[in-house]
Specification:
Length: 330
């Protein structure tokens, strides 16, 4: 029986780790956009960075069941870490990226001491309080952050001392794409591991999981730390690619926007956040151009239509179409 159970577990992990067609299509489209839309590389880069940020939230909400209303705190911390280091003359993009990941992850580990003890509305309020506090601290320390005027004067050095960031965004796109794809592979391996299954178990039945010998608090703390670190990398990528940081990176609107992206794309599958961020960013840009005043109205209608359809976001809708016209989904 033990051998059969081990074989079943192996088959489960193999099935879960198999690449689905929507993942392959997304990354092929993202890579080919460098050649297909050379005049929109800055926008596409920002969409990919937003996708990484959304993916970090998916690890919390979609897998661990941690609802966060202040996830922008870690995004902003990563952005300001890279920005301040670049302004001080330590503008190596890779080292600044690592520093952002460490500081955001360390802050996430501290916050997880509180968050992992709470559930429901208490968790929401604490994460919201963390986000609002970080925003006000950044606004208060304007000598360091620039406050409402934003952090300016960043000097980001060429990557490996060779590839300098250009105005058209070619280097920023390639650099961001490589980093984001590597982190996507890491996150994909993470959620398809025993740790990922433990998170799903906690999300589905919090009271039963301890009976299986799984330390709930430790698992949630680790998930929160990893998600915060990835969010910090996303913030640092945005800072390095734009070489300017607005106070808005820590704002409540940023936390809400990333939640909208995740819901739009589909919660609990990683690529949903990436697709949702791409659709949200492009749709916002196009709708703002068509209707600068009331573009939020149309975005709201799109979001309501997706949610009320009960499809589980864009990815869920695609999988329903696959099951209907292409047989049983894998």
């Amino acid at each position: 029986m033990a051998v059969l159970a081990a074989e079943d577990a192996t088959r489960l992990f193999v099935a879960r780790s198999r690449w689905r067609w929507e993942e392959i299509v997304f990354w092929l489209v993202a890579a080919s956009s460098y050649f297909l839309f050379p005049g929109h590389l800055v926008l596409i880069t920002q969409a990919l960075i937003a996708g990484l940020f959304s993916m970090s939230l998916d690890i919390l909400l979609g897998y661990a069941g941690i609802a966060s209303m202040g996830h922008a705190a870690f995004f902003g911390l990563g952005a300001y870490t890279a920005g301040i280091l670049a302004k001080m003359g330590y503008g190596d993009p890779i080292l600044d990226l690592l520093a952002a990941a460490v500081l955001a992850g360390g802050f996430g580990a501290l916050c997880s001491l509180l968050v992992a003890r709470l559930h429901g509305i208490g968790m929401l309020m604490v994460t919201l309080g963390i986000g609002l506090s970080c925003y006000e601290l950044a606004n208060r320390w304007r000598d360091m952050t620039g406050g409402d005027d934003g952090l300016q004067g960043m000097v980001v050095k060429p990557i490996f001392g060779i590839f300098a960031f250009d105005f058209d965004g070619h280097v920023a796109f390639i650099y961001s794409f490589v980093v984001i794809f590597i982190l996507y592979l890491f996150a994909r391996r993470l959620v398809n591991s025993p740790f990922g299954l433990a998170l799903l178990g906690i999300r589905e039945n919090l009271r039963r999981v301890p009976a299986l010998g799984i330390g709930v608090r430790a698992q949630l703390m680790l998930a929160f730390t990893i998600a915060a670190s990835i969010a910090g990398v996303a913030g640092a990528l945005l800072a390095e690619s734009t070489q300017f940081i607005a106070l808005e990176v820590l704002g409540f609107d940023r936390s809400i926007s990333v939640l909208i992206m995740l819901v739009l794309g589909g919660i609990g599958n990683l690529v949903g956040g990436m697709i949702g961020a791409m659709v949200f960013t492009v749709a916002r840009d196009e709708l703002a151009a068509l209707d600068p005043v009331y573009w939020n109205f149309w975005m709201g209608l799109i979001l309501c239509a997706i949610v009320l359809s009960g499809s589980g976001g864009i990815v869920g809708l695609l999988r329903r179409i696959e099951r209907r016209f292409g047989g049983t989904a894998r």
